């Protein structure tokens, strides 16, 4: 068995790749490669950018040791077959219907026998956290990625849960109706920037700017309080149904956790006092490591039939 795999995290406007030692499960020092991507570009430009980043990582290892490439990929995507289905998501729409595996194998000069495996990016984060992260000692894990979207996954004994009465449809919560829309409308970066503009007339690019003024800005303070409290109320029924031992949180918005975390904890403790709330230590590496775990043949057999449900 080859001992190195490449993990690839496809973000909304960037790609990050790194080599992972399949024996230690650690990212190999110096192999991390990141590149900004114009998500509105034509298909060829996007694929060239992705292949450039991945080739940059491959060039730093022995190609003969490569076991495969695992992708943490946002949806909508045909995960079993590696086909992009991006539509009405304002990113990578030029790739709709493109077989990503075929195109990247061609550009990377990798044969058809080289495994390319795909999984939802939030699920990849959750897999890594339950495997080698802070949630490793818990059998039932809810993982959240807070950023431009409201990513989530439910994990039981290391395996994503997508069916059954204890989890929402598709094993995630972003699409669940909430207030005047869906959860994603209220627990992602666009909510913060929109609400801050509505209340102040000031345009900000992200949550970081709001957090920097939260100490002496009443509007910023109120937004974080609302965000944490509402999220706690929203999650509480699903925490109870799933009997989650821990919620592990990652994503860019976690930088502002000191401003909303206590409100989130307070709401959850009222109904689920045994559930821990932890922040990821793996950070951006989590999705990379989670994608690489798909190259473990034993684990792959347990999760591959779940991919059509994502």
Brief overview:
The protein is built from ten helices and 14 strands. By secondary structure, the chain is α/β, with parallel strands linked by helices. The strands form four sheets. A five-stranded mixed β-sheet has the order 3-2-1-4-7, sandwiched between helices. Strands 10-9-8-13-14 form a five-stranded mixed β-sheet. A two-stranded antiparallel sheet has the order 5-6.
Which bin fits the share of residues in helices? 25-40%
**Euclidean distance between termini CA atoms:** 29 Å
User: How many E-type strands?
Assistant: 14
Q: Tell me the quaternary state.
A: single chain
Let me know the largest β-sheet: 5 strands, mixed
H/E element sequence: EEEHEEEHEHEEEEEHHHHEHEHH
Q: Strand portion, in percent? A: 15-25%
Instruction: Sum up the overall morphology in one term.
Output: globular
Q: Could you give the order of strands across the largest sheet? A: 3-2-1-4-7
CATH topology of the largest domain: Nucleotidyltransferase, domain 5
Estimated radius of gyration: 19 Å
